[in-house]
Fold this protein.
Amino acid sequence: MGKRCLMKISCTILVVTLAVFLFGGVASAGFTDVSDNHWAAVSIKKMSDRGMVSGYTDGTFKPDKTVTQTEAVVFALRAMGLNSSSVDNLPDVSFPVPAWAEQDIKLAVKQGLVKEADQFSAYSGASRAWTARLLVRMVGEEKRALEELLQPSFTDAYEIPDWADEYVRVAQDMNLIRGYDNNQFRPNQTVSRAEMVAFLDRADTHLPGSTSSDSTSTDLTITGSAGQFGSKVSGRVLKIYPERNTFVIVQQNGINSVLSLPENASVSVEGSGSSGLNAMRQGDEVEVTLNTEGYVIGIVVNSRSAGGRGNGIVFDLDLDLDPGLLTVEYDDGTLTAYKLARQVAVFMDGARYPTLLDVHNGDRIRLTVEDHLVTEIEVLEKDVTLNMAGEVVVLDTDRDVINLDIDGVLKAYRLARGVKVTVPGLNNAYLSDIEVGDTVRASGKDGEITLLEVDGREAGYSFSATIVAVDTGNQVLTLEKQGGDIVAYELLKNARIIIDDDEEDLQDLARDMEVNVRLLDGDIIFVEVDNSPAGTITDIDVKGMLLVLNRDNGIKATYTINDRVRVRSTDDRDELNKVQRGDYAKLILNNDQVDEIRLRYTIACRVENVREANDRLEVVDEDGDSLRLYVRDGVELVVPGTNYPHLDDVFKGDLVLATYMGRDLDKVEVLKPYRGSVSSLDVYSRSVTLKLFDGGVKNFSYPTGSQVFTGGRAYDSFSALSTGDMVEVVENTSGGYTFTVMEEVIGNLAADVNSDAYNIYLRDGYDWDAYELDENVYVQNAGGYTYSINSLQSGDSVRLYVLRDLVYAIKIV
């Protein structure tokens, strides 16, 4: 593997002193388990110094530990400067809270951070959705959430609980809590202590009296005689630390300089249209004026490259305005608008004389901005994100291609593996449900369509609900739908009622039953009852034999547990006292009591063999243990891009997620891996940019639960990755990503390589070593140009990148 190196930084004594102040020490945040390169070290240090958060008696902070709802509320109170000991007439609360935090929770209720209707769960982990609501209330924007009623724009917005939708949108708009690189929010994922501190740090800027809004701060501008100044330095901005009024630039001579503003000062940034260090961006070319004490008193942005923010995607390009306006969406979800210069140079591979007319929404671009105007646009990828509507002309599921008529222009698009399809009235729609002539709205990314929504065609209407009342005389069923709406429907004479797979009558239905209902012309044609509710356990009282389940339909219900309840699990948790809050479970009820609890367990495996004759996959799990997965008897098989998958759609080497309910296999899902070269690492935001072997670019965050496998060892630290590493990236069962670094093998080819070759041979003295090739092996030379496999010749010096005995990439040295 490539050697890790530390860059030497030459600077003045002042710069060295500042650098030690900023970066020195293993535990810069004051805790033994928070190193100076921890992604949240700056926020933890800041909030700890101000007394907003604290650690444990052993000197640790435990940054990765899940924060409970109680702890999150206490953190928020401290950040707001509130103390329960100084407030009288605190209200009583009807829900259980730990004794140490009782007064704080009462204060939180009085302040409106927590409300009696919230179903506050003191000991449960704080989910991201729950935390979004807390942050919005904390900064005083709950009224905005309840009045605007805007929906979040995340791809998994359907997973956000109804009560949290508006809060998540406001938190998103205010940058209090962000989504992930694939534009998911993951509302049910719990928040770590480090993440909570980072959220509070962002919220702090919106609180009265925060540093960013302090009326006593001084606005310094470049005015007066030159005798006031000490010197000027110029360079490119590398890092910005607004919380410490400090930033780092690299000068033309290669020297890195750490520059600071005087305490409680804010500098006007000429050329940015704003003031303060937040107005600068990484990549800006700046001229900095220093006073005689070496502090910054003025900044001029001479040239701004949007590449400093990272490559962006065209959100909108309006050439009808004068001057033209370009709006770019960056990977963090923010939108930035730029005015266009009179003459804009456009660069694009494959186009001899590209113009602005060749730049379209969804293209990934890099900008150069001078004097507030865009002067250059480099198109890096076409159609990275897609969002269009049109009529289906051709749908070829064998080739994964769809042709759409968009405003009279015929366009062809690739369909992503696992493309999601929605048709009004169908709970589970597939590509086969789309017909030629349908009007569809298509969206996607990386040049592939990931979502197809059919408009204007009704296939019947079905929904889930809870029975409120049964009127057998008038054949009417009253239901509570998701969201709380109460509705009543008549049953058709030929309506079918199914209870636990048996056909029954209306009189067999009862209040509080969960049902799936299908309508025909506004009346009920079908009712199904599954007396086995499933969902997430939000509370369990072993002594009182009570269990609270947040069911899949969003309704929370409390169940009595039978004294002889059976617990079934695949991970040996077969006793009631081993059932935990947060477990996903299926309950088997008998006379409204829980007779059996089946816990969900998910494990990632690699396919070793496919035995179609036995309906069996032979796999190896992450611990190296061999397992057999029998895909039969109702086990769901999911293969991205395949509507009706069979075992012959699964191949050796595929990564799969096996999900068990109790001791029974419930689902096997094939995961899509991403393979490529690490092109950049952003330690501050903990993000990885991957140049994919298939030519695309993919950005990944590094959330809690992520791991790096390299050299036969596993690391939780982001720093285990290096630029240039060849890696495979997949989602894991901990809510993060697993980055596996490929082994590098260096040698000389022992023979020419044909385009249909299955193996490649390296010389080993007088012998040859054979390496099996992946069918889509990637070949490039030292300059980064892509080659075909048959260009490799005997004697070539090469580097092979091997994973699980397969060569995925070859670099000609």
